[in-house]
Amino acid sequence: MRKADARKKLLACRAALSQACIQAESALCIQRLKDYLRAYLRDFSEKELYIYAYYPLEREINLLPLYEEILAGRWDSESVRLHLAFPRVWQKEMEFYAVEDLRHFEKGAFGVLEPKIPYSRLAPAEKGLVLVPCLGIHQKGYRLGYGAGYYDRYFAQKREVRLLGITFSFAGEQDFSCEDYDICMDSII
Q: How many C-beta atoms surround the C-beta of residue 46 within 10 A?
């Protein structure tokens, strides 16, 4: 199937979801992420961990409750401190900014909430966990996004990050044509 057709199909499926279903899927995803994070932190040897997050659009998986926990320090321990960073789009490029509060966002490209400046821009993500919003996931783990290519370009050169694809349960195991530039997720949540 062509990507455009897969996008159209998945967007229609997502539009048909009730608010209760979106909340239930979001809660399930948050629980899976918490389990993943606990396991990941057991073997983590650094003092700080950056989680590269996304601010959800209206009908995306909503991870804001987990972000609030992280920003409140509930995931910090004596050995590691967690930080959140969110993307901001400049023309055709995306950069991540460290944030300390979810109230300091503004509408940016495509109506997505982005960190207000002057947050600290981070160097390109070298280590950490990246929560990647996915419209769908290919059978082999490749991401289907909205088609602008920001995540594909940003993560074209795989660094020591773990790409965690975040999507609805019905959107996994899709069969669409992949391109050489498509990025593959390390895990699907």
A: 11
Q: Is 108 helix (H, G, I), strand (E, B) or coil?
A: coil
For strands 136-137 and 48-52, give the pairing: unpaired
CB atoms within 10 A of CB 12: 9
pLDDT in tens, 43-66: 888 899 999 999 998 899 999 999
Strand-pairing partners, residue 82, are 49
3-state secondary structure the chain: CCHHHHHHHHHHHHHCCCHHHHHHHHHHHHHHHHHHHHHHHHCCCCCEEEEECCCCCCCCCCCHHHHHHHHCCCCCCCCCEEEEEEEEEECCEEEEEEECCCCCEEECHHHCEEECCCCEECCCCCEEEEEEECCEEECCCEEECCCCCHHHHHCCCCCEEEEEEECCHHHCCECCCCCCCCCECCEEC
Residue 95 main-chain phi, psi, to 5 deg: -135, 155
pTM reported for the whole predicted model: 0.91
